[in-house]
Predict the 3D structure of the following.
Amino acid sequence: NTKGFIFDLDGVIVDTAKYHFLAWKKLANSIDVDFTETQNEQLKGVSRVKSLEKILSWGNKTISEDEFMALMAKKNDDYLSYIDKMGESEILPDVPKILNHLNENNQGVALGSASKNARKILQKVNLISNFQAIVDGNDVSKAKPDPEVFLIGAKALHQKPENCIVFEDSVAGVQAANNANMISIGIGDKTVLSEADYVFKDFTEISIEFIEELIKK
Ligand code: B16
Ligand code: MG
């Protein structure tokens, strides 16, 4: 039995949300807009363009197209300065255990992320060789909750959507998996991710037996 396992990146494999927060906060404050951790929550799984649009609307700011592009570049440069220092120690607990088990048992493994920096981050934490396919922000035109990112992932793994399992930490991502007709596994808070088929706090709560059940389903 072969299934397709599709992983989100930020919040599932690594905790880059803290670096997005620092970079967005610095940028927002530089244009006199407040930025809180609660607002950062709302940017999870959301693209870079959409994130800046939200920050500008929270601050009631309108800017020119050129300024918009300049701010996007500034945020990303700042974000990349944190990414450059990342290493294997920032992989979230038990993620390698699950990836290794899937690879050893010839299951399809893909990444499905909104980030345009996904490949770089996977290289930094030395996990890139665990993925047969990488679908990221450079490959999609429609953002989560649209299922596009995961449907492209399923195709790359030569799997039907109904034979795919998605691991996601964001509400929009869980909805995208459900919209793709895949099994959705939320990583995080049960009350936040209530639309997911299963929810676990993190990968330390996911047993190999559970993974085996998903493979046999
Ligand atoms: P970038 P994911 C998402 O990654 C993040 O959750 C989101 O906060 C970020 O804005 C988005 O990637 C775009 O990232 O600026 O690096 O292209 O959770 O889909 O892996
Ligand atoms: Mg995420």
About this structure: The longest strand covers residues 108-112.
